[in-house]
Amino acid sequence: MSGKTLAIVGQQETIMPFLATGAEVVYVKKGECVKVVEELIERGFKIIFFTEEFIDELSEILLNYRTETVPCLIPIPTGRGKTKLAIERIRGVIKKAVGADVFLEEK
Questions:
Q1: Which residue from 1, 98, 89 is spatially nearest to 40, judged by alpha carbons?
Q2: Which residues of 62-88 are buried (b: 16+ CB within 10 A; e: fewer)?
Q3: Contacts of 18 (CB under 8 A, 6+ apart)
């Protein structure tokens, strides 16, 4: 698999600041995310961040790639949606990569 490394997908007002990172930034609306993410995977992107409001829309793709190293699909918590689900998914990705849970437990 060749291609670029990092893409960020989400609603414009949420991901516009990521333009400064040099990553591929793709604005989407509800109903468009699956097609866009599939195209990014086809183009060879290895890490795809997406805003958490698209977790449900991308559920089938997330299920298909859950055991794959590439592409790594990671939700970005926005504070407006399923933040706990997004954070738990990030926690799982980091735990898988590092081999340990590095998040501090809330007390």
A1: 1
A2: beebeeeeebbbbbbbbeebbeeebee
A3: 8, 25, 49
Quick count: other Cβ atoms within 10 Å of Cβ 35?
10
Distances (CA, A) of 66 to 37, 63, 91: 15, 5, 14
Domains of the chain, start order: 6-97 (3.40.50.10580)
Q: Which pLDDT tens digit goes with each residue over 20-71?
A: 988 999 999 999 999 999 999 999 999 999 998 899 999 999 999 988 888 9
Question: Would you give the distance in Å from CA 54 to the centre of its chain?
Answer: 9
Give the count of beta carbons closer than 10 Å to the beta carbon of residue 36.
19
Per DSSP, 105 falls in state P
